[in-house]
TrEMBL record:
Bias kind Basic and acidic residues: ranges: 79-91
Pfam family, any one: DUF1289
InterPro entries, A to Z: DUF1289
Residue ranges of the region described as Disordered: 68-91
Bias (Polar residues): 69-78
Protein name, UniProt field: Putative Fe-S protein
Amino acid sequence: MTLSMEQIEIFTIPSPCKGICEVNNRGYCKGCFRSREERFCWNQMTEHQKRIVVDLCQRRKKRIMAKKNAQQLDNSAEPQDKQDDLFKFDI
């Protein structure tokens, strides 16, 4: 026999929806970082389940933002191709 100990939530957890409602290549919403199943089942979830989803979303956002920042740093570290100045003459 296993007992499930769910943490009691005092306040209702609001939907993390940001109104963007577009999915990325991994299937997560670009606004709230929920999966399709998490978005569709939100109203049927317990407050404890909602807390777990919100925590997962925060981790996903942090991971995605860190990856974006790393890519931006990599791009800025690469030497940029400079076009020769057409009006600069060596005389």
